[in-house]
Amino acid sequence: MKFCQPHWDALREAIELRGLGHLIAANGREAAARTVADLTGDDDLANYDPLMDVHWMIASRAMGVFGIAALAAGCPVCELLRALPSPPDGFRYATNEQYLIDGPADAVQQYCIEHGIAQPLGSRDL
Ligand SMILES: [Zn+2]
Description:
With 126 residues, the protein is an all-alpha fold. It contains 5 helices and no strands. It has one domain. The chain is 55% helix and 0% strand. Helix 1 (5-17) packs across helix 5, helix 3 crosses helix 4 (76-83) and helix 3 packs across helix 5. The longest helix is centred in the last third of the chain and has 19 residues, at 96-114. The radius of gyration is 15 Å and the shape is globular. Residues 3-4, 7, 75, 77-78 line the site of zinc ion. The site of zinc ion (ZN) has 6 residues, from helix 4.
């Protein structure tokens, strides 16, 4: 499972648009170290990475839809877009791509605000 470059760029942009870009790991090595910390229970809010969190949310969604086959498939966003033609009812996203990318990005933004590691956009000027 590897995100295609356009969808990886869209995920990064979605995180940056929500004012969370400063929390993204500086490089692949740091991201890998954070993932290891997450898996071993050594993670904390100081090394929380919203980009990796949305990555895992989407990967988990793909696993829920495709099962273990998702691991051998291509970009999970591309695969989910092919399998799910429109967003589920009751969500505010107009397109399935927005549902798949903005939905997790909105969730991590809310998580960061609730845990005090990010401020709501616009609040810095108050
Ligand atoms: Zn893709």
